[in-house]
Write a structure and sequence with these properties.
The chain is an alpha+beta fold and 393 residues long. Helices cover 36% and strands 18% of the residues.
């Protein structure tokens, strides 16, 4: 209700301003300035915020602050430029002026309110604001389809429009519609428990996927795709994801496997899948819990988790090495090709092809933690005293 009220107020005030004060060309120029503003904000907020986060500034507030500042500054600059490009006092008659004011005012109001709601969703604030898309922070999230939206989805309009542009006129090898497919779900899930100590950002090197890290299980195991996600110790400034206590806390809803239909590039659009749970050894699972797996995964069980359940890697899980790992299970339909693994708001890694689970692959993975670059063993975490303790065992 609050989000709807904000949208209505912003739209009404914008239309009133346009109708009472603006000439036709001013209304049109202001609308175009708002479009250029959100395009630039979406295009550059991540690299600029990444610079701040990497140097230890801004933390969880960096992305929302940069996004909003970029929009305001670019909106203002383009608005001034429109008065230079054409005569703002050109008269097209009363009917044209009024019609332009209503149409352009409505569009500009929706864009401004959409940007405002997205900015709020990027903040580490209560999940009730700007609206409880998945609940109040205490509600268990079982699936993405439970997402709630305001009656007027201004934030969906803005993010959807930019996603559409990223596939067409603004297309590149790194499409926003791939990297941020389901953008609003991603934002709201990453901030769902930010007030409870689960950070929504991490260091740029905080996760990696080793070679042979994607394994597809056989039919008896529901054709699950198991992804080995290695997590780096250390704080955000050191490229890790640890909090002040040295623990790494995250929700399954903060991990996404982005797939494409039969393609391995990052053009066009993608589909995000969230973990069904973790694959752990049977002896580490609570007695009677977890679904036993068979074949290569014999001796392990699938522990299902809700998307909001907090998983924690403590200092002990890292041992004396610099990485610990988690095996996350995804239900990926046949014909879909994984291309990216995303962690929290700002960490993305490319993933290799999916291979059938095999004893060889499991032996390679258990032989040592990947260094995240070449898929080879990291000497600091190979077998011996430096090897991190497996949190799945």
């Amino acid at each position: 209700m609050l989000a709807l009220l904000v949208i209505v107020i912003i739209v009404l005030l914008t239309v009133a301003q346009f109708y009472l004060k603006n000439k036709a060309m001013t209304s049109f120029g202001t609308m175009m300035a708002s479009i250029f503003g959100f395009v630039l904000a979406f295009s550059y907020y991540e690299p600029l915020a990444g610079l701040l986060i990497g140097k230890g500034y801004g933390g969880q507030w960096a992305q929302s602050g940069i996004f909003f500042i970029l929009f305001v500054l670019s909106f203002a600059v383009f608005r001034v430029l429109t008065d230079v490009l054409w005569d703002p006092d050109a008269d097209f008659g009363a009917v044209a002026t009024q019609a332009t004011a209503v149409v352009c005012g409505l569009a500009t109001g929706l864009i401004i309110s959409g940007v405002f709601l997205i900015t709020l969703a990027m903040m580490p604030a209560s999940p009730k604001y700007p609206y409880p898309r998945f609940g109040d922070g205490q509600t268990a999230i079982s699936e993405i389809r439970s997402a709630k939206k305001p009656l007027i989805s201004a934030d969906g309009l803005v993010s959807g429009l930019f996603s559409w542009m990223s596939k067409g006129s603004l297309s590149s090898s790194k499409s926003f519609a791939v990297y941020h497919t389901g953008f609003l779900d991603q934002l709201h899930l990453n901030g769902y428990k930010a007030r409870s100590g689960v950070d929504r950002v991490a260091g740029k090197d905080s996760i990696s996927v080793p070679k042979k890290g994607l394994r597809r299980l056989d039919g008896e195991n529901e054709n699950l795709t198991v992804v080995r996600m290695e997590v780096k110790r250390g704080g955000i400034k050191q490229g890790g994801a640890a909090n002040a206590k040295g623990d790494v806390s995250f929700m399954p809803g903060q991990v996404r496997l982005v797939c494409k239909g039969g393609e391995s590039n990052t053009r066009g659009s993608g589909t995000a899948f969230y973990p069904e749970g973790r694959v752990v050894s049977r002896r580490s699972a609570p007695q009677g819990q977890g679904k036993p797996l068979t074949g290569v995964m014999n001796g392990r069980v699938l522990m299902t988790h809700t998307l909001d359940e907090v998983l924690t890697l403590s200092k002990d899980d890292f041992g004396t090495g610099n990485r610990a790992h988690v095996d996350l299970a995804f239900q990926i339909p046949s014909g879909m090709t994984p291309v990216l693994l995303e962690f929290k708001d700002n960490v993305v890694v490319s993933v290799g092809g999916v291979e059938p689970a095999s004893a060889e692959a499991e032996a390679a993975l258990e032989g040592g933690a990947s260094n995240g670059d070449s898929g080879t063993s990291d000497t600091s975490s190979s077998a011996g005293a430096g090897r991190p303790r497996d949190p799945n065992s």
